[in-house]
Amino acid sequence: MDPSLPQNLEEYSASSTTLKFDRPIPLLRGPIPAGPSDDPSSGPYLLAFEDLPSWAAAYKSCESKIITQCEEGARIGCAISASNKCKPPWWQSLFGWKSMDLNDRERCEDREMEGCLVAAKEKCVSFAKERCAKPFLDARIAVGEREVRNKVVRRMVHMASMPVESTWCELIGLDKLGECELRVTNYRASRFLGSGAQLQT
Predict the structure, then answer these.
(1) Distance between CA atoms of 3 and 65, rounded to whole angstroms?
(2) What residues contact residue 116 under an 8 Å CB cut-off, 6+ apart?
């Protein structure tokens, strides 16, 4: 064997020298062309969810993660609170009172812990809704060409029912039907869910 070569070739094998990276996390939102109603100073593109289901999945994930983190923090706080409430008063030792039975203290802590966690869970759910609602209702959702064309078709049906010489088309803007609708690229989530929408889990 050539003495210039390393003795242990396994240390230089592909499996030993290749670094493995985690798969990239897919983007929640992707760039889409801005529509006519979007702020032109923000540039020609903006970030939007692909569709309503992907938006809903991201909202659920956001809410779930915040609730989990909140409950983990609350569990620590509840444990400290239960321990403080169930420990005997400091002044009992001054009068020679018998120390509290450990089993009684354990049952006391269990009761306090359970009640504290129930209250904390309700607060965590409300906190998660509050934190996720505003940004997700303001988030944009891409509108596919088919969805836009369906709206156009519905408006064309109304237009076809009017007399040819009717001026109603001009008054309600149907004469410019193809100029604006087909350029719509996105809507805010609040528009999909209705004005003043309340998110439900």
Answers:
(1) 57
(2) 74, 77, 78, 81, 82
Cα dihedral: 111, 113, 116, 120 (round 10) = -140
Residue 104's CB: how many other CB atoms inside 10 A? 10
Q: Whole-angstrom Cα distance, residue 147 to residue 156?
A: 14
More confident residue, 106 or 94: 106
Q: 42 φ, ψ to 5°? A: -80, -5
Which ranges in the chain belong to alpha helices (H)?
A: 14-17, 52-86, 102-138, 145-160, 168-172, 177-180, 189-193
Q: Are 34 and 42 in contact (CB under 8 A)?
A: yes
Indicate the residue type of 190.
S
* Whole-number Å distance between alpha carbons of 123 and 70: 9
pLDDT digits (tens, 9 = 90+) for 150-166: 444 444 444 444 444 44
Decide: 67 and 125 in contact? Cβ < 8 Å: yes
CA–CA distance, 114 with 116 (Å, rounded to integer): 5
